[in-house]
Amino acid sequence: MTSALTWPVLAGIDPSDRATVSAIWYGALLLALGSIATAAQQAVALSRLSSHPEGLRQIREVLGRRKVDGRWRPSKVQLVVWQTPVSMLNASIVMFVVGFGVLVWASVEWGWAWDDVKVFICVWVVCGRGADADFLRRL
User: Fold this and answer.
1) Are residues 104 and 118 in the same domain?
2) Alpha-carbon dihedral of residues 23, 84, 1, 109, nearest 10 degrees?
3) CB neighbour list of residue 74: distance below 8 Å, 6 or more residues apart
4) From CA 58, how far away is CA 55, in angstroms rounded?
5) Total structural domains within the chain
6) What is the domain range of residue 138?
7) pTM for this structure?
8) CA proximity to 87, closest of 134, 45, 139, 32
9) pLDDT tens profile 54-68
10) pLDDT tens, 21-41?
11) Which of the pair, 113 or 52, is modelled with greater confidence?
12) Do residue 104 and residue 129 come from a single domain?
């Protein structure tokens, strides 16, 4: 992600567009670094708890509570907290792709022929269908 900030094509676009792309990419970089730091903190916390003789019981008590029927249920707050690094990383990837889209949009000359428009539409449709298929496969 950081090497994308040095691409020569950035120097060839309008300064306001360059600032927009750079801001989006720096935001994506900060989210990715925050994701790594948060995941590392969670891994250390789980490692420390699991090394305790009663570690598994303590982890279960921290992450949820016992219901009336005796089964353990996860706390909704804990579910959100433990999914935070993954969500931050996904948001970082989305921001990078959005910044890339802004870069492409800003660097395109708008004197297109109809054949160029058809190629552009086909590429974006194929990319979108690939992303949809990957998303549906993961469900």
Assistant:
1) no
2) -50
3) 63, 64
4) 5
5) 2
6) 110-139
7) 0.69
8) 32
9) 877 777 777 777 777
10) 899 999 999 999 999 999 999
11) 52
12) no
